[in-house]
Amino acid sequence: MIQVKNVSKKYGEKNILDNVSVTFPKGKITCLVGGNGTGKSTLLSIISRLVSRDQGEINLVNQEIVNFKNRDFAKRLSILKQANHPNVRLTVKELVAFGRFPHSQGRLTHQDQEKIQESLVFMGLVDIQDQYIDELSGGQKQRTFLAMVLAQDTDYILLDEPLNNLDMKHSVEIMKILRVLADEYGKTIIIVVHDINYASSYADYIAAVKDHKIIHFGPTDEIIREDIMKEVFDIDMTIVDNCNNKVCIYFK
Amino acid sequence: MIRILLVLMLLILSFLSLFVGVKDISIFDIHQLDKDELLVIFVSRIPRMVAVLIAGVGMSISGLIVQQISLNKFVSPTTMGTLDACKMGILFSMILFPGSGMITKMVLSFVIALAASMLFLNISSKIKMRSLIFIPLVGIVFGNILSAISTFFAYKYNLVQNMEGWLIGDFSAIIKGNYEVLYLGIPIVFMSYLYANKFTIVGLGHETATSLGLNAKRVTYLGLGFVAITSTVVVLTAGVIPFLGLIVPNIVSLIFGDNLKKTIGLTALIGAIFLLICDLISRTLIAPYEIPIGLTVSIIGGIIFLVLILKRAKHV
């Protein structure tokens, strides 16, 4: 469980997060949705200690996150930021292996090797595991970085727009994998997505962000409503029930 | 396999370098050297060979480290002002503490080099345009500013000729007794190897490194410390050897990738071989005179650098 209490963040005079409080439930997928520049990414960065906050409290399993040692924190929580990864010449397998760094500090054990192999299989990267990542397509590269996060094997996984660069097939595959991670491995996943239908189809909870605040938080079913969608995204949507699965239609 | 070949090559070249020079010592006389010849070998030839080896290894690894830290393949002690800062440090120690020894020069030069590297990294992290070529250009401008300041003071205190001495790298003056600070570079090489994984992770970006539980700042400063020490001792003994830290790591990266645990040894080997070859060329081309090695490296390195830019540019 991650508890965020009254967290605020300003860049200069500009409010990025305004007194945000939210609790992300354990073992579930929570999607952060909302327009550009509303502070979703910053919230993820603050929770993962990449960015400092101006005020407020954040607890990970009832312990304030600043009190964790770097290495211990990295064993519990991992984050993958929006894809602008540097052009490094590491092979797919080498990069994924660095996901084990918090556990083994570079001296890979038998168990590490198994985790690495498992992640490669999970992400369908076995065939290209010896290729350099600077020679891959955007989607393959994104999946490689996701595999690294999987190999890190943390209870909490934060993903900032992981579906960028991915085609529909791979996007759906990633979301299914995340479902498996939550349902079978009990991972807590917080993810920023832009297409509301990925959230409505795969998330357990949705947190809707607008004007630097979380204006709605609740089970997916309760949030996917025409009036709430209008309030969050400022566009009219028709919501269709497709066998227990709501789909928002917003192309007109 | 490649490693064995490179090691063999290094051994042969090192051995060869003992028998090149003004005093004619033939390889075939090795079992019957007279007293004079032994003196030359122990006082001049071996120190020179060792100096070339350490400088070659040290500057190449320094380049590799700063390229990881700055996430830019074209940053190196030459293109980020570190070498100019070293010169500045030596000059200032001559002005402030005239007649002072090697240690004073070394300490002041190290401090200024470290401060300058940190300042450069700070400036470059604030630049929005993160193009592969732009950052090193800023570094070159930065280095030139440092150099201009040094030149100003050098004129004022009549030390211009002294300055020129370290401007172009030259191993010809190295003899037993004046190059030993270079040995400080050896532990740095081993430390770099121990930190290889951490430098690789820092090269993945600040955010990824932090997510993997690494204190990226600490590793960055440590790396800059390594580079400042190595640059200082090399400039102090041999002078500025440009391009080495730029081209050697780039060639290794293109062929063998960026996993430092795998490539740091190769970088060291190739750096040493490259500098030995340049040194041999410098000593034989206009024998019995010598071309300063800085010049040889500049010409050969400049050409390779151009080829690299064209090759790397495709990946940007």
Automatic annotation (TrEMBL), chain A:
It comes from Myroides pelagicus. Signal peptide: none annotated. Its main location: membrane. It comes from the Bacteria. Transmembrane segments: none annotated. GO terms for cellular component: plasma membrane. Keywords: ATP-binding, Cell membrane, Ion transport, Iron, Iron transport, Membrane, Nucleotide-binding, Transport. InterPro entries: AAA+_ATPase, ABC_transporter-like_ATP-bd, P-loop_NTPase, Siderophore_ABC-ATPase. Residues 2-236 form the ABC transporter domain. It is found in: Cell membrane. One of its GO terms (molecular function) is ATP hydrolysis activity. One of its GO terms (biological process) is iron ion transport. This is ATP-binding cassette domain-containing protein. It is a peripheral membrane protein.
UniProtKB/TrEMBL annotation, chain B:
GO terms for molecular function: transmembrane transporter activity. The keyword Zinc does not apply. It is a multi-pass membrane protein. GO terms for biological process: siderophore-iron import into cell. The keyword 4Fe-4S does not apply. The chain crosses the membrane at residues 45-66, 133-155, 221-252, 264-285, 291-310. It is found in: Cell membrane. InterPro entries: ABC_BtuC-like (IPR037294), ABC_transptr_permease_BtuC (IPR000522). Belongs to the binding-protein-dependent transport system permease family. FecCD subfamily. This is Iron chelate uptake ABC transporter family permease subunit. It comes from Myroides pelagicus. The lineage of its organism: Bacteria, Pseudomonadati, Bacteroidota, Flavobacteriia, Flavobacteriales.
